[in-house]
C-alpha cells in the first residue's frame, strides 16, 4: 500500500499521533481530511499541511463516535477529493479510573474507543469491497494486548478495539480491505501528560514500562507498516515480547502485573 494520491481521513487529527499521521500522510502525497472534536486544532494541522502542499487538506470539527458526524466527514472527503481510501480511527479517550462507577464514563470510552471504529467501517467497507481496495487503521494501545493498570474502561475498550480490528481483517482481508492495528506504549501526547486523562498511577505504569516516543516517530512506524500491509504495529518492539510472555504463562504474567501494580502504588503521588 502506497499512500500517494490516496484520500485519507484521520480522526483525532488535531494533535498527537493523529496530527503527526495527517502531516506524514500529506508528505507522502495523500490528500487528507483532518477531523477532531476540537475544530480549531484540526484546522491548525490542516493549515500546516496546506502551507507546504496547497489544497492537500481540509479540516472538519466532528465527534468521531457519532454516526451522523462520521457520515458528514466522509461526505466532505468525497466532495473535496473523491472516494475515501484510508481511514485512521485514531481518536481515543482515557476515560475512567479503577472500576469506574459512572456508566456515562464507560459509555464514553466504549463510544470513542470501539463503537467509532464499528460505525466508520459500516459506512466504508461496502464501498471498499466494491472497489476491491481500502485500508482501515485502528489506533488501539499496548493496553489492548496487555492491560492498563489503573483504568478498567481504558483497558477493556482497547482490548475490544484490537479484537474488532482482528475480526475485520479476517472477515474482509480477502476482499481487498486491509487492516492495521496500532498498539504503542508511551507516546508524548495529551493522553499521557494531561492530568484529566490517565490517573497518576496509570500514567506511571506507562512511563516506567518503556520509552516515551514522539508522535512523529509513531507516524513513521505506521506508514512503514502500511507499506508492508502489516496487521500489528508495535512502535515499542518490547511489547511483542511482553505479549509472548503473557500467552506462554498467563498466571505468571498476572502475578507479575500484580507485583508491578503494587510497586507503582507504593510510590509517592
Name of the CATH superfamily: NAD(P)-binding Rossmann-like Domain
**Intertermini distance:** 46 Å
Strand content: 5-15%
Query: What is the third-level CATH name, the topology?
Result: Rossmann fold
Major sheet strand order? 3-2-1-4-5-6-7
Helix content: 40-55%
User: How many DSSP H or I helices?
Assistant: 10
Shape: globular
What is the N-to-C succession of helices and strands? Answer: EHEHEHEHEHEHHHEHH
* Number of E-state strands: 7
CATH class label: Alpha Beta
Structural class: alpha/beta
Can you describe what's shown?
It contains 10 helices and 7 strands. The protein has helices spanning 16-27, 39-52, 67-80, 103-131, 152-172, 190-193, 200-207, 215-227, 238-248, 250-265, and strands at 7-11, 31-36, 57-61, 86-89, 134-139, 177-182, 232-233. The model has no long low-confidence stretch (mean pLDDT 94). The chain has one domain (7-238): 3-Layer(aba) Sandwich (Rossmann fold). With 269 residues, it is of the alpha/beta class. β2 (31-36), α2 (39-52) and β3 (57-61) form a beta-alpha-beta unit. The relative contact order is 0.12. The radius of gyration is 18 Å and the shape is globular. The chain has a 7-stranded parallel sheet, with helices on both faces. Helix content is 53%, strand content 13%. α1 crosses α8 (215-227) and α9 packs across α10. Keywords: Oxidoreductase. GO terms for molecular function: oxidoreductase activity. Its EC number is 1.-.-.-. This is SDR family oxidoreductase. Belongs to the short-chain dehydrogenases/reductases (SDR) family.
